[in-house]
Amino acid sequence: MGILKKSYPYYKKIYGILLICILFGLTQGVIGLVEPQIVTLIVDNVINPALGAKPVENSSIFAFLIEDMPQDNLWQIMFTLTGVFLLFLLLYFVTFYIRWNMAHYFSIKCDNKIRLDVLRKINSFGTPLLKEYSTGDLITIVNSDAENIKNFHVATIPFTVDALFYIVVAAVMLSRINIWLMLLPFFTLAVFALITKKFLKLCDEMYGRLWEKNSKLNTETQESIYGIRTIKAYAREDLRAKRFSGKSRDVRDFSTNFSIRRYKYFLAFDTSDQFVMLASMALSIWLATKFEMTSGEYTAFLAYLLEICGNFIDIIFNLADARGQKVSADRLYGLLDKKDEISALYGDKKVSRTPHITLSHVSAKADGNELLDNVSLDLPYGKKVGIMGKTGSGKSVLLRVMQAFEEFESGTITIDGIDIKEYSRNEITGAYGYAMQNVFLFSNSISANIAYYRPDAPEEEVAACGEIAQVSEFADSFPDGYNTIIGEKGFGLSGGQKQRVAIARALLKNAPVTVLDDCTSALDIETESKIFRSLEKHFKGRTLVMATHRAVALKDFDEILFLENGKVAERGTFNELMELNGKYADIYKKQMDKEVFVHWQEPVL
């Protein structure tokens, strides 16, 4: 019932349709129940008389169809009964087709809404919540768990109702033949109930563990695919294949063990079923010898008996499936119900188009490690700030904290003098155009990747941002230009080309503040210089924050921060830092000795 309660907001609009589908299923059950009644008449009133026996009366509900026909006109009786049988058969297929397609057509819409809500939830997660789930967990939830919840509604519930309906009505039909024929099938129910209790306990235990193993396999698969370039670069295909094979064998072995244990119970069910069949046949033969059952009734009895026992087992299988579906529902709805305590700290204010951002004595930690220590920064609109420091000095952390991607332990961050927590997180992220250190591109055209924030952006605007970021330099060499489709995660482009697309994407967003996080590290010095000269023109009067390892790139910035172990070791203008003759000046001099730097304010020849 927990699945129904949690699923109600998604499936409530189609519960009426699902109920109609159940009624179609019950119609199929009725057809399955009445067909043996027709067969009873065919055996007693056509086949046996054709073999020399006399026609006999029986308990068939369709006896009225032939009561006015001459008993010796076997062909007329046969055609009538066969016609009715085929009519029911046609009705069965029509109801089956309508039911199956109707249930799946409407349930897929609900299924898609659940998946979309899961994706939105994942997108809204703060860093702490994201760390609770692996990639495999999320893939399993979005794909397998959502599918299982759909199957619960369109298969498990309807098929269980079908089976219960058939058992009850078939029992009534058996009672019309002889009341004693009902005893053994329902004795089977009592035996099955005892076995089922332990069987469902096994399912509760195993489905959760199977979910976790599938999740780990999904994570391994995702890493093996996305890391294919690194794997091939180090010729470690054998290692990844071994790791994947290990996870795959783990799932296989666990599933095999689960199946073996399941089929031990199935063997018990089947053995009980066969015992009841033999006992029931013995009883029915004894009743037939006592002239209390006709040959046709015996035929109907066997049909009903087989179906009753089969439906008992179907119910048990459905209950087992429901256990697995409950695991899926608990995982999926558990994710949707997760409270993002970080998001709850933020308000709903909107960020202005000319934000003045101030960080005052900000410190941040992760896993007990100090990432930022007492960092202050005043960033009025239009200011250009450069950030330098060794790897791990806190450059990227500072940029993420500024954009509310990560939380800080102490200090304050304000926007236009108002605490950052009073603003909507979407508003905060919307105020920044962010070119990340680790570039991610989608499997789409170059143009679509640049226009990711504004898919409807004019081609001219996309091309203009591409010119600034020097994307045109390589895009124009492709036959399809900016419409060239690049592979997943940017496969097909070099590291420097991907960085240029990322810069163009940040520019097209046209946010008040642009943040470039070491996104020119893969560029040659000449291309980098061209980009910086273009950015100088583009960012006149706008805010720019850039983290980089290249001291020469920050020469004309309004302020430069040099971080060391999360602290501001040096700060000032280029001239002030050169006069200080400290860490920044030392790096600048060394880089100038190694590189021929083309100043970004010089005209391009």
Q: How would you portray this structure in words?
A:
With 605 residues, the protein is α/β, with parallel strands linked by helices. It contains 18 helices and ten strands. The protein has helices at residues 2-11, 15-50, 74-124, 127-130, 135-177, 183-226, 228-233, 237-289, 295-337, 395-402, 425-430, 446-450, 459-468, 472-475, 495-508, 525-538, 574-580, 583-594, and strands at 357-366, 369-379, 384-389, 410-415, 418-419, 432-435, 513-517, 543-547, 559-564, 567-572. A six-stranded mixed beta sheet has the order 6-7-8-3-9-10, with helices on both faces. Strands 2-1-4-5 form a four-stranded antiparallel beta sheet, with helices on one face. β7, α16 (525-538) and β8 form a beta-alpha-beta unit. α2 packs antiparallel against α3 (74-124), α6 runs parallel beside α9 and α13 (459-468) packs across α15. The longest helix is centred in the middle third of the chain and has 53 residues, at 237-289.
Strands, helices and their partners?
Layout: H1 2-11, H2 15-50, H3 74-124, H4 127-130, H5 135-177, H6 183-226, H7 228-233, H8 237-289, H9 295-337, E1 357-366, E2 369-379, E3 384-389, H10 395-402, E4 410-415, E5 418-419, H11 425-430, E6 432-435, H12 446-450, H13 459-468, H14 472-475, H15 495-508, E7 513-517, H16 525-538, E8 543-547, E9 559-564, E10 567-572, H17 574-580, H18 583-594
Parallel strand pairs: 3-8, 3-9, 6-7, 7-8
Antiparallel strand pairs: 1-2, 1-4, 4-5, 9-10
Helix pairs in contact: 2-3, 2-5, 2-9, 3-5, 5-6, 5-9, 6-8, 6-9, 8-9, 13-15
